Amino acid sequence: MSVKETCLICFEDNPIARMFSIGTCHHKYCLSCMKHHVEVQLQSRIVAQCPHKDCKCEVNTETCKKFLSPELADIMIERIKESSIPVTEKVYCTFPRCSALMSKQEVLEHTKTSFVSEGGRKCMKCHQYFCINCRVPWHYDMSCYDYQRSETYSRSEDQLVKSLAMKKLWRQCSKCKHMVELDSGCYHIICRCGHQFCYTCGAEWKNKRATCSCPLWDEHHIIRP
């Protein structure tokens, strides 16, 4: 008779081979529940942690590959890297088809023998040149000072904000144009200007009721890990 263990999420008894151990904390859950848990956290753009209450242990990336698709495993690696880099050190490739995440230090180290000028650096992934100071494709015909005083820079700043909003899944208030980021709580947003809308699709709330059919909440945002 094979030895079985109980998963503390679904409470089903599973063979040991179908159980997943969370790294250093050693909490165990079945592969099916862990797959769903990790996928939900990745969709919420956060690093997957142990589902056990009050446990902050991160899920090991390598061991997750046994139940995650290669694409999701790559996303998980990206999330871990993103969380490990301080906000002030994060650098994203300015070319939309790449958008690779790098730390400022590793970019400077990687390009110390191949930079165009003080600001012109080469992306570590797509190898195209961008300006690490202006955060745009490299402006070959002018200095950073001149570029930042130009109308082109003003327009590119607007595009940068829009690109970042898409990457971070921010929602823009249709009334005051303020960007909103959901940290926790339901998807019913009350902007600082008083306008109410759905965080998922942006539809307006009228008379304290949604005008769309989007879910009101996701458990992850209601009960924070």
Fold and architecture overview:
Might act as an E3 ubiquitin-protein ligase, or as part of E3 complex, which accepts ubiquitin from specific E2 ubiquitin-conjugating enzymes and then transfers it to substrates. GO terms for molecular function: ubiquitin protein ligase activity; zinc ion binding. It catalyses: [E2 ubiquitin-conjugating enzyme]-S-ubiquitinyl-L-cysteine + [acceptor protein]-L-lysine = [E2 ubiquitin-conjugating enzyme]-L-cysteine + [acceptor protein]-N(6)-ubiquitinyl-L-lysine. The model has no long low-confidence stretch (mean pLDDT 80). The longest helix has 18 residues, at 151-168. This protein is of the alpha+beta class and 225 residues long. Strands 7-8-9 form a 3-stranded antiparallel beta sheet. Strands 1-2 form a two-stranded antiparallel sheet. The chain has 3 domains: 4-84, Zinc/RING finger domain, C3HC4 (zinc finger) (Herpes Virus-1, 2-Layer Sandwich), CATH 3.30.40.10; 87-168, no CATH class; 170-225, no CATH class. It has helices spanning 31-43, 61-64, 70-84, 104-110, 144-148, 151-168, 219-222, and strands spanning 4-6, 13-15, 19-21, 28-30, 90-92, 101-103, 120-122, 129-131, 136-137, 171-172, 179-180, 188-190, 196-198, 205-206, 209-210.
Which SSEs are present, and which pair or pack?
Elements: E1 4-6, E2 13-15, E3 19-21, E4 28-30, H1 31-43, H2 61-64, H3 70-84, E5 90-92, E6 101-103, H4 104-110, E7 120-122, E8 129-131, E9 136-137, H5 144-148, H6 151-168, E10 171-172, E11 179-180, E12 188-190, E13 196-198, E14 205-206, E15 209-210, H7 219-222
Antiparallel strand pairs: 1-2, 3-4, 5-6, 7-8, 8-9, 10-11, 12-13, 14-15
